[in-house]
């Protein structure tokens, strides 16, 4: 592809921050410490989780970089970066979350297949770029279109990225045309992240950002867009990232029986405490993030210091010092919400957090009831074990 290429090995990988916990080296998959997530409402690029399926593509000539739009449309077209930058620019604050976030905890119930993630395969960024609805108008598809005159109903994004799951072919995924052409869905072709040019790990020079949907659909390193009658038939839409019941295993799985996962469920995680934490006597700060897919807000976050027997409601905010209200137009509907509570804890305690979204969806109590063989969408109550003690410094 002009200006952009996919390396055949891992010799041209970009530098990464040393604090990241590496869950897989080749391809590179890593997450920050959970405490780093709550230091800033907008996640710094260095601390934003890295999720890859192959070597990171390289831009050799940004002036020559272009991508094509084709398929069931009247006039296929090639677009360059200047064409995208000439469109109105929008900044959208949105969470991206890997469907496998918290997979490691799910695997403790029963073994699952996939990269082991703790709780930090998630980040909140300000994405800058053109709305996909505006881009599709350039090829004659009006806004709020659900089907083209030629039968196109889905928008497939194809990456320059090459991955073994596609037998060396490109990573790809799709969303419904009705979502792609809806300006209110805020689907972007993004060239900026947190006010700066995208870096290579996050899709330079151009990526898709689909707010409110699992990260697997926000395709990086865009090579082409295809308007199709059917959902993308690629591996990651048809044989991965689907939610199966606990009764399904690798012997009886029927991939065609389930739809590709899109929205993610309500989720919250305690970030101020590790899984086994020794804390000083006195009030303990319980802080973390909460988020729900599909643009649903967070109605409530409940915190317990006795394993879920009794509860107290945490405060919620997006901007520091401003209480969060999901109905407030100034709230970022695609972003996460921070929560905070303080409590005196007994000598040994299980601290639990659960969130409720604006549709009254609530996290399930136990991971066992949502266990699935791919280990996706672990949204069970988040639990940390703590005990009151003294650090080595206190003992002097």
What order do the strands of the largest sheet run in, or round the barrel if closed?
7-6-15-10-11
Parts with pLDDT < 50 across at least 5 consecutive residues: 392-396
* CATH homology superfamily name of the largest domain: Oxidoreductase, molybdopterin-binding domain
Summed up, the domain count is 2
User: Helical element count?
Assistant: 6
- Write down how many β-strands occur, each being a DSSP E stretch of 2 or more residues: 24
SSE order, one letter for each helix or strand: EEEHEEEEHEHEHEEHEEEEHEEEEEEEEE
> What is the beta-strand fraction?
25-35%
Strand count, sense and barrel status of the largest sheet are: 5 strands, mixed
**For the record, what CATH class of the largest domain applies?**
Alpha Beta
* Radius of gyration, taken over Cα atoms and rounded to an integer in Å: 22 Å
Q: Provide the CATH topology of the largest domain.
A: Sulfite Oxidase, Chain A, domain 2
The span between the termini is 64 Å
Mean pLDDT: 95
**The CATH architecture of the largest domain:** Alpha-Beta Complex
Helix content: under 10%
Helix/strand-derived category reads mainly beta
Large-scale geometry: globular
Enzyme class: oxidoreductase
GO molecular function: heme binding; molybdenum ion binding; molybdopterin cofactor binding; sulfite oxidase activity
InterPro entries: Ig_E-set (IPR014756), MoCF_OxRdtse_dimer (IPR005066), Mopterin_OxRdtase_euk (IPR008335), OxRdtase_Mopterin-bd_dom (IPR000572), OxRdtase_Mopterin-bd_sf (IPR036374)
Cofactor: Mo-molybdopterin
